[in-house]
Specification:
By secondary structure, this protein is α/β, with parallel strands linked by helices. The protein has helices at residues 36-50, 77-88, 105-112, 139-155, 183-209, and strands spanning 2-5, 23-28, 54-59, 91-97, 129-136, 159-160, 165-168. Helix 4 links the parallel strand 5 (129-136) and strand 6 (159-160).
Length: 210
């Protein structure tokens, strides 16, 4: 699902102006609609919007289903759309289920397409804060997966936010408006969204006046 939520309200990091609002792109979920990782991603993006950002979610069927091939230059429409969004992004959120101690192959394939950004003026995820969410049926696989996501983000030159969010799906779920039923985790998603938006506003300001 590809979802855009334009926002023209005033964020607490500064007065909102349509030409200044940062764009936060969320990528993740699974082929199963309404998965925990998709709902956590949407919840975090909703917090980013209240902080004064525009948001787009690329989840489920909107993610590339063609295997990344570095030899071929042709790209399927889904891959092309994803990369163009990431090129425009001021901040990024990745949300993945934990599959056997690491991220899903579905998400990893999508992230492999970021290699197409290697020769950009702002290569890979350079200069962007990256929020990380992992949903797992238990704590052990989740910790390993969150660590793998941090390593991938570093390799892509992104800046992982100080807080990453691990959700034990065996212990909690999501209610109305994608609110996490564990208030502590819901607050962590809010904090992470704030860190991403704050970093984006600061980077945009530095580029304007630096």
């Amino acid at each position: 699902m590809l979802m855009e939520n334009p926002n023209r309200s005033v964020g607490f990091f500064g007065p909102a102006n349509e030409n200044r609002l940062p764009l936060i792109v969320g990528v993740g979920g699974t082929t199963r609609e309404e998965s925990s990782s998709e709902r956590a991603l949407r919840r975090t993006l909703s917090f980013a919007k209240t902080h004064g950002a525009r948001t787009v979610a690329v989840t489920g069927s909107a993610l590339p289903d063609s295997i990344y091939d570095p030899v071929k230059s042709e790209r399927c429409p889904k891959a092309f759309s994803l990369i163009e969004l990431l090129r425009s992004a001021d901040g990024v959120i990745f949300s993945s289920p934990a599959y056997h101690g690491s991220i899903s192959g579905f998400l990893k394939n999508a992230l492999d397409y970021i290699e197409d950004m290697r020769d950009d003026d702002q290569p890979y995820l350079e200069g962007r804060a990256v929020g990380l969410i992992c949903c797992a049926m238990g704590w052990q696989a989740g910790g390993a997966t969150l660590g793998a996501m941090r390593s991938i983000t570093h390799s892509l030159r992104g800046w992982p936010t100080p807080i990453g969010v691990l959700i034990n799906s065996a212990a909690t779920g999501f209610g109305a408006d994608d609110r996490c039923l564990d208030e502590a985790i819901d607050q962590q998603l809010r904090i992470m969204a704030g860190q991403i938006v704050e970093f984006a506003f600061a980077r945009n300001s530095a580029r304007r006046y630096g």
